[in-house]
Design goal:
Layout: H1 2-15, H2 21-69, H3 76-85, E1 89-97, E2 101-112, E3 115-123
Antiparallel strand pairs: 1-2, 2-3
Length: 127
């Protein structure tokens, strides 16, 4: 009985063409996991850059609105550009609106692989 079990087991080993397939499967799975992690890191980097661009736009709009209202000295759009530059951003547009409202669009100088990060903010006197 034992010899028959050994023969059938030995026969399976010799006829099986799947030796090493587990290694190939594990390597493929590891590659997929690494690609997913790389994509997640790119998305996280983009989210951080978008947040930084929005913050730069907020601060630039607030600084420009203060200059527009006469609280600080300077031309509103120049003050906004200086505030944005301190936060590694460039002002794309600066528009003075009715009611002493300033609208600013910024773009970070640093870019990710997914493109530039931009921000938009509007500031003015309290309602």
């Amino acid at each position: 009985m034992r010899s028959r079990a050994r023969q059938s087991w030995a026969g399976l080993e010799e006829d099986s063409g799947e030796r090493g397939s587990g290694t190939v499967l594990a390597a493929g799975l590891a590659l997929v996991v690494m690609m997913v992690m790389a994509m997640m890191l790119l998305l996280a980097q983009s989210a951080v850059l978008a947040s930084r661009a929005a913050s730069a736009a907020d601060l630039a709009a607030l600084a420009g609105a203060d200059a527009l209202r006469g609280i600080t000295d300077g031309e509103p759009c120049t003050v906004a550009a200086e505030a944005a530059a301190r936060h590694a951003a460039a002002v794309l547009s600066c528009v003075e609106g009715a009611g002493q409202i300033l609208e600013v669009r910024t773009e970070l100088r640093e870019r990710s692989m997914l493109g530039p990060a931009s921000g938009h903010a509007r500031a003015g006197p309290p309602p």
